[in-house]
Every structure is written in structure tokens, then in C-alpha cells.
Amino acid sequence: MGCDRLWRYILALSLTACGVSSSGETAVTGETVADTTDTTDTTSGGSADSGDTSTSGDPVPPPCLPTELRGPLFANIAGWNIYDAVDSNGYMVERPGAEVLDPDALKTIFDTYPLNPLFDEVPGVVATGYGLCLSPVFEPKNSAICLIADLATHTSTVEALTQALAVIFADAPEGCFGVSVDFLGLLEPRCDVGDPECEPLPKCPGCSYAPEAPRTPAGWNNQEGTCAHDGDCFLNGCSNHCDAWTVPGYIGFCTAEPGACANCGCVEGLCQWFTQDIDDPKTCW
Questions:
Q1: How many structural domains comprise the chain?
Q2: Are 160 and 38 in contact (CB under 8 A)?
């Protein structure tokens, strides 16, 4: 798991240990099995208007999470609200309730209703936990706590995940909490072909790249997917795999072995690592 995700879990544990109580900005949740069907792309476009009806025809419950934790309403599934994430590539799934549960209550639910069944019931779930919500509020004293589910792109839908969460927490104590759903991978190319800054990605900072120099495939195995231009390729895993954006994201192993400098880009219609015959003595670790 990359450091950008790991810090959310670590800081959440420290917040609980320090006795952060209910602030109106926390979330709680538990877990159980799921009834999932879809294994389609996780892309979902558009946002629903709050106050509408759910997919079952029932009125959509009013929001209970603070506005800084949720964007526009996207859908309502099994009585749970799904909002666009405020500041991330994902969603905020809300279990409606009269009051937002404090971190201690959330931790109790997390321990009582394990999220482990999600791994079997929802294809593409790669990590679950208890930690900081996906929001711009990063200061420890103000940060809200949520349950967390990382979902690989191009696998299951957020609707299927929400249906599974509703089953898991069907018997959980009443109360409002959020589940931060973060996508691993890309839902579209990272940049457009006409963008002058849409260049290959270096294996490590400092690797040189010359647009006019020929590209020689490195012949490494940690690469996958077809492409039309460099923007179709991204760094997957622990930023050590060169994959097309259509490849589901995943958590990779991070190694500390030295290697030659290279760039990740589109070469001969494939996303792959390549080198160039330029003065680039730097070694990547």
C-alpha cells in the first residue's frame, strides 16, 4: 500500500488514541456480506439531485454528513446515499441517521461488523479500514473519521459495493456514518494527446526525457495494456508498473532495489518502460 493511503489509517488510530470525540464531522460503520452482481466498469457519470427518489422509488433520506465530506448526490441504493467525493477520485457512501457517530462508536462498529466479506462478495475490493475520510480537511483536530474501502477501477461498481455494505450493516446500531470509497487506478486517460505537458512518466524523479530522441523498449515485465499516446499510460501498483489506464488499479509491492532510469509511455502501441540514448547516469531506487 502506498504512503498516500497508509497515512490515513495511521492518523485515524492516533486520533482515537488521543480521545477525539464527536465533532459532527465523523463517521462510523461496520461490515458484513454483500449481494453483488455487476462486474462492469466503475465509471459512473452524472449526479442525482438530492431530495429525489431512490432506484426503488422510495424517498431519498436527507443527508446527515457535513457538507465538507460530500459532493452532489449521485445515487441512493438500499437506503444509503452515494455522493461524489469532494476532493478525490471516488465517492462518499453515507448510511443515513439522525446523528453522526463519533470515532469511538465508529471503531466499535468497525470491530463488531468486519468488512472482510467485501473481498469475496465485491470483485475489485483491495483494501478496507478505519481512517480519515476523503475530504480537504486534513488537520487532525478537524479531521473526520470514516470507514474506508479501496476499489480497483474497471471491476465492480460503487452501487454494487453500497448494496453489499447495506447487507453488512443491516443489524448495526442506528446512526449516521460515511464510507470513503477510493478508486485505485484511472477512470480515463491521465491527459489529452494535444496537451504539450502530456509526457511520459519517469521511473523516479530526475530521470531525463528528450521528446526528439528515439525510444527503446526496456523489455521489463512490469507493464501492461495498449495505448494510442503517452496519456493512456500511468504508474500502477507502487508506482513501479507501467500500465494502460484501462488496467484495474492495484496495490503493489515496493522494493528498494537499484535500477536504471526509464520512462513509462506509449511505445509501439503498448504502455511500457523505455530508455533513450541520452546522458542519464542517474540510478533509481
A1: 2
A2: yes
User: Is there a single domain that holds both residue 14 and residue 154?
Assistant: yes
| Together in a domain, 257 and 170 | no
Reported as a pLDDT band with limits 50, 70 and 90, residue 11 is very low
Query: Does residue 189 form part of some domain?
Result: no
Beta bridge mates, 81 = 76, 94
Range of the domain at 247: 201-284
Number of other CB atoms surrounding residue 211 within 10 Å:
8
Cβ–Cβ under 8 Å, residues 54 and 61 = no
The pLDDT value recorded for residue 143 is 66
pTM of the model: 0.74
Q: Are residues 150 and 205 in the same domain?
A: no
Distance, CA of 191 to CA of 171 (rounded, Å): 44
- Identify the CA nearest to 146 among candidates 186, 91, 74: 91
Is 50 contained in some domain?
Answer: yes
Residue 163 lies inside a defined structural domain of this protein: yes
Three-state SS at 53? strand
| pLDDT, mean over the chain | 80
**Residue 260 to residue 237: CA distance in whole angstroms:** 19
Q: How confident is the model at residue 46 (pLDDT cuts 50, 70, 90)?
A: very low
* Lookup: cell for 99: 446523528
